[in-house]
Amino acid sequence: METSTDPKLLPALERLAELARDKGASDVELLDARWDARSVEVRAGRASDVQVMSGSVLRGRVYVDGDKSASFSTKDPSAARDVITKAMARAHKAKADKNQGPSEAFPISERGVGLDDQRYDVLTDRDRSDVALENFRGCKAARVICRSTDYADVRTFRAFYSTRGISASNSDTRYDVRIQASLDDESLSTEFQAAGRAFASIGALPYGLDLGERLQSLAAPSVSLPSTEDVAIVLEPHVLASLLTRLGPAFCADTVLAGRSFLSKLKDRELGSYRVHLIDDATLHGALLTRAFDDRGVAPMPVPLIQEGQLGGLLHTPETARSEDARPTGHEMDGNLCPSNLILRRGNRSRTQMLGEVPLALQFDRLDGDLDIKSGMLELHGPAFVLESGKRRGLVRRAVIRGHILDLLKGVKELASNQQRTLNVDCATAVITGFPVSET
Q1: Which backbone phi and psi does 272 adopt, to 5 degrees?
Q2: Helix (H, G, I), strand (E, B) or coil at 434
Q3: 9-217 domain in CATH 3.40.30.10?
Q4: R_g over Cα of the chain
Q5: Does position 5 have pLDDT exceeding 50, yes or no?
Q6: Mean pLDDT, to the nearest integer, of 14-27?
Q7: Which of 188, 221, 297, 392 is buried deepest, with most CB atoms within 10 A?
């Protein structure tokens, strides 16, 4: 595999672009992505041998007559010429679209984004196995059994070339740990995933220990759901992060313009409480989904999705940006428009201060279920602790929240100051009032 210092990839992409131009292409854009990956599994306390994998993909688009195009993708670099030739034939037959065409060139810089961990080159198989084993061994508490631990890392090199004057390359690293555990009677099970750009971000923290303690707390005696309608909902950072991850795709412009998002039928710009301020930022230093450029060669820009409870902006491809007279936002990855790092602005008070003033609440440990992006309706469930002025008073085994996401966001009463990062989401504990909770 060529490395991030290999000088041949960009010139190779230029030659492929010239081939397409010789066949009549008015414009060409090409992305070459290659990666090396390593993984370790721990089962029954024993680590497997480190597995080594590698792969590549060449994807891009050819344009003819300026407004007709065809995309292509291949995992076989030797097939590039044939794939491009076939794409040219499809482009000639395609329907004309005035919004087609590569993105305009925007300044691309890797400085300050913290994508590539320089330690990657010196990591050993022992280092990788130790992370998996330590998390497996650390996930222990009364009645808790660790079922498995998985570790994986990958280093990716990406090169992009466009006839609109874009030529860029970068390398990045990613590390993942996944732990699965359950109570000894298997009445409850849970999973935890951590990921980061640097080995230190997942290799030095006791994720297994934290998961074991969290699962042990779920063995608490069960109680019935409080009968009052005044019960508040408390979403801890890792729980709120899972909800925001489900919500993010609703802000993709292609989905909105096609009528597949609840935002397509939004009658006004109000999305939630004035306390809700949500930003998508693919430039955030060292964050999981930060990037120097996307698959279309666009340098990303921060996008305020929700500003003080009002609709802010959308994520755009070059095509949707032209149709809406906007700038492409740098969010097209793996052939799809998708959110990157989400940051929900935190509040000013500590979690303890905030919850101490809430007479009765349900603190969810996790939220399983679905959020329908098209309708905005959600049906989520999970175990939830009953809190009285912030103190735990028992566990409801299965509490359900069902309704519209806008009503949930409008019910955000306060956000604490305990901002935490869960995968690609930064957020704090939230208190939500006026939203129904049931046990069925």
Answers
A1: 180, -170
A2: coil
A3: no
A4: 24
A5: no
A6: 95
A7: 297
